[in-house]
From TrEMBL:
This is Putative membrane protein, Yip1 family. One of its GO terms (cellular component) is membrane. It is a multi-pass membrane protein. Residues 24-179 form the Yip1 domain. InterPro entries: Yip1_dom. It comes from Halapricum desulfuricans. The chain crosses the membrane at residues 47-68, 80-110, 146-164. Keywords: Membrane, Transmembrane, Transmembrane helix. It is found in: Membrane.
């Protein structure tokens, strides 16, 4: 998962500026990004990208939604520790598990597909919209998770050389867990639906 090859052919550059550039590119030109920016065995930039997204998403949730845990009389220690554990431990492990699920699904749908490392990168970069998943506005969280699902479909189709119908079917289980539960898209959808029903009833 942390393999970092010295000179990837067509892979991503390194550093904060490269992460910011990748974020902008995958949001604005996903087909071109996945075609040119995903390289075999070059998983580390994707992993660090996902960790950055989780850092912003959870950090925003702690600051804006007041969801930061507290530890005793140390109001700063709890949030910092929880954020570090989420970014450094939970995010990479979750990515590992989601990639394993995605590969299993792809095996049944796309016989001639790319490798595991490319799938790691697709899932990681598809999380780009979720930098704002911590904003306490359900509609914003819903939009960013739906856009993440769209990016995942595009990435699977481009990188694994399949059509969008199969890519959509392949992406549903992984997106349901990652975007629906991980980034709280289902919770946001429920709140948006409830608010819409109340508005119509009024």
């Amino acid at each position: 998962m942390t393999q970092w090859i010295k000179d990837p052919e067509g892979g991503r550059d390194r550093g904060p500026r490269a992460i910011a550039r990748a974020w902008f590119e995958v949001l604005t030109a996903p087909r071109r990004f996945f075609r040119a920016g995903v390289a075999p065995a070059d998983q580390a930039p994707g992993l660090f990208f996902l960790m950055s997204v989780v850092l912003f998403a959870e950090g925003g949730r702690y600051l804006l939604a007041g969801a930061a845990p507290a530890v005793g009389s140390h109001p700063v220690a709890g949030p910092v520790l929880a954020l570090l554990l989420t970014v450094v431990l939970v995010a990479p492990v979750a990515l590992h598990l989601l990639v394993a699920l995605q590969v299993l699904v792809l095996m049944g749908l796309v016989p001639d597909r790319a490798g595991v490392s490319e799938t790691v990168q697709v899932l990681a970069y598809a999380s780009a919209p979720c930098v704002v998943a911590g904003v306490p506005i359900p509609a914003v969280r819903l939009l960013c998770t739906v856009y993440g699902f769209v990016l995942l479909v595009v990435g699977l189709a481009v990188v694994h050389g399949t059509n969008y119908r199969r890519a959509t079917v392949a992406a549903i289980p992984t997106a349901a867990i990652g975007f629906g539960y991980g980034f709280r898209g289902f919770e946001a959808a429920s709140k948006v639906l409830r608010a819409s029903v109340e508005l119509l009833a009024f």
